[in-house]
Amino acid sequence: MLHFLPAPVRGLIACLLLALNTLICCWPLFFVALLKLLIPVPVVQRALRFVMHGIAEFWIGTNNFWINLVGQTQWHVSGRGSLDNQHSYLVTSNHQSWVDILVLQYQLNRRMPLLKFFLKQELIWVPVIGLCWWALEFPFMKRFSKEYLAKHPEKAGEDLATTRKACERYKTNPVSVFNFLEGTRLTPAKHAQQQSPFKHLLKPKAGGIAFVLDAMGEQLHSLVNVTIHYPQGNPGFWDLLSGRIPQVVVHFEELPIPAEFIGGNYDKDPVYRQNFQNWVNQLWQAKDAQLEQLHQQYPPR
Q1: Beta strands in the chain (DSSP E)
Q2: pTM of the entire structure?
Q3: 123-150 per-position pLDDT tens digit
Q4: Residues 6+ apart with CB under 8 A from 286
Q5: DSSP helix, strand, coil percent of the chain (3-state; round to 5)
């Protein structure tokens, strides 16, 4: 609708709409979150979670509106039809850009339960939105280096404890637990530094989703494996705001979670850990091959 405007003007309009949308939605979200804290009755808290998820879905829907308003993105989407709002899912995707998150929200909003992302603990300090993530019970993870854990072994397992605590809250409402298996965005420098065996991906980190399966595997209906491809190259967030993403390819694949991986101990069982890593690497090999096919099927135009 605003495609006739220069890209910088479209970007400014989108920034203002995003900020206004966030400021409008955060106050009812904070109010309901406060009620949930003050009324420790499970039935009431379950109902309030539905209200909070509804507010978040409205926020995402409004973002989708301005994405359509400022851009003319051509979407190539496949494999999404089997998803619903009644089941809980484990969701993962390749990670190339901050735009990935809004792409996933655009395609999945109200088609499956609200995505709950694993976030670095430092992100809780992001103005307004960090508090929104906390209110919506997104799990904040504190990462420790191997060197730090060698000096402070008592900190080992804190991520698992955080995951279990978050997943306990998710048992009362359907949820989509999301984790970027690569742990960070793909860049040529990171790819070279890792000496990744994959052409289009970084090495996957299996521990995050292993902890989720340990904590709530029996509740999860299936794994939703998402592959995102940008034919014109990985966009920046400003490209999205200014409507300069001509094409996005998104493929969804719903897979059963192998029964042998439900309730295993990734930290303490080396056989389980090796088998789980082998499974994740097979998923990544298939994703890498699919991305190679998508690069050929949807070349830059």
Answers
A1: 74-78, 88-93, 115-117, 119-120, 140-141, 176-180, 220-229, 247-255
A2: 0.91
A3: 778 888 888 988 998 877 766 556 655 6
A4: none
A5: 55, 15, 35
In three-state form (DSSP H/G/I as H, E/B as E, the rest C), the secondary structure along 82-112 is: CCCCCCEEEEEECCCCCHHHHHHHHHHCCCC
Q: How far apart are CA 136 and CA 53, in angstroms?
A: 7
Per-residue tokens: 186: 């793909």
* Pairwise CA distance, residues 162 & 142, whole Å: 9
Residues in the chain: 301
Distance CA 141, CA 162 (A): 7
- Among 259, 262, 252, residue whose Cα is nearest residue 225: 252
Of 16, 5, 4, nearest to 63 by C-alpha is 16
Q: Is the dihedral of CA 83, 86, 90, 94 positive or negative?
A: positive
What is the tens place of the pLDDT at every residue in 191-211? 999 999 999 999 999 888 888
Please identify which residue in the block is written with the tokens 């507010």. Answer: 55
Tokens 């904040």 belong to 140
Tokens read off for 163: 């995951």
300 phi/psi in degrees, rounded to 5: -60, 145
Query: How many other C-beta atoms can be found within 10 angstroms of the C-beta atom of residue 247?
Result: 15
Tokens 């902890």 locate to 211
H or E segment and range at residue 235 = none
For residue 158, give every residue at least 6 positions away whose Cβ sits within 8 Å of its Cβ, in sequence order, or none: 142, 144
Using DSSP bridges, classify how beta strands 176-180 and 88-93 pair: parallel, antiparallel or unpaired: parallel
| CA proximity to 157, closest of 263, 262, 266, 260 | 266
Asked whether the beta carbons of 283 and 110 are under 8 A apart, the reply is: no
- Three-class secondary structure of residue 176 per DSSP: strand
